[in-house]
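Sequence, please.
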């Protein structure tokens, strides 16, 4: 194992290989977004297993870390943490006391465990929800539990529509038992975003005990073509979707999601509310969900399967 500080001109082939496989091939990031004018100016970090390039990242002159990638076969081997530490050591040598980055929401836990904490800034990048995170170097990790399921007691509100996707991905990636989803508006971007649907599939695959229940208000024609229904058809034993013929829940104007017995997310196109640790509130939501679930019916459209 070795990690080196390299330039784009000296290591372009290896850096491109890693990022091509991770970002373009796996995550389907468009090539014109992945390759930009910053690469030539940036300082790059390259990790190798023997002679094989397996991990990389880049640093911009303002202390921004980005493009951190590890090849699939080498994940869970500690490469991400090693690349981070190398980047931080380099920044300290250059007298930078802070590092910041735009983390994919799905990677929040990784950066959090390495001492990074979120700011209020959220953004879409290549149709993937991101959140800005930062770390003050040479200081103990902050005691903050922000966005940690079953630990963060604060109420979080936002008028940014993207907050629903960011908080959904962060909470669902920490869930271990059940996710319930009550949908008022199937057209909401969260339910149509490929990376959010990948979150649900990943959640289901992690254990035989995990399951998802989805309650839709008013089944509509053509529902079988919706991405959420297509996901259910691939995992029908673990994802159950039913419909209410009328909106009877007092919060039916909102989409409501609960994560295990700890967190809940409530949102529409105008506002987003999330709490990652409020068992009493989640219990109330779940009681209401169970009552509506008992009144619901199997989907007519859900019986249409695609090959």
């Amino acid at each position: 194992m070795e990690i080196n500080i390299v330039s784009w001109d000296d290591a372009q082939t290896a850096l491109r290989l890693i990022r091509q496989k991770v970002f373009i091939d796996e995550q389907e990031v468009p090539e014109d977004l992945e390759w930009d004018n910053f690469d030539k100016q940036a300082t790059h970090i390259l990790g190798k297993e023997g002679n094989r390039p397996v991990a990389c990242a880049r640093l911009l002159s303002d202390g921004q870390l980005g493009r951190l990638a590890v090849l699939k076969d080498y994940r869970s081997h500690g490469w991400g943490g090693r690349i981070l530490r190398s980047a931080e050591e380099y920044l300290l040598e250059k007298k930078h006391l802070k590092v910041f980055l735009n983390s994919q929401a799905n990677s929040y836990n990784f950066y959090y465990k390495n001492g990074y904490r979120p700011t209020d800034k959220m953004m879409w990048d290549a149709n993937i929800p991101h959140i800005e995170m930062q770390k003050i170097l040479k200081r103990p990790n902050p005691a903050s539990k922000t966005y940690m399921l079953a630990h963060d007691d604060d109420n979080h509100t936002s008028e940014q529509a993207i907050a629903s996707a960011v908080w959904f991905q962060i909470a669902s990636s920490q869930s271990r038992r059940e996710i319930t989803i009550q949908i008022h508006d199937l057209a909401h971007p969260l339910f149509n975003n490929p990376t959010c649907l990948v979150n649900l599939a990943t959640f289901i695959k992690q254990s035989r005990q995990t399951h998802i229940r989805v309650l839709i208000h008013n089944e509509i024609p053509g529902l079988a073509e919706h991405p959420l229904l297509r996901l259910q058809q691939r995992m029908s034993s673990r994802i159950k979707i039913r419909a209410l013929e009328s909106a009877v829940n007092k919060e039916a104007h909102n989409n409501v999601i609960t994560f295990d017995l700890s967190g809940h997310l409530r949102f529409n196109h105008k506002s987003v509310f999330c709490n990652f640790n409020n068992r009493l509130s989640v219990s109330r939501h779940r009681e209401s969900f169970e009552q509506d679930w008992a009144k619901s019916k199997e989907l007519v459209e859900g019986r249409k399967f695609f090959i």
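The longest helix spans residues 8-26.
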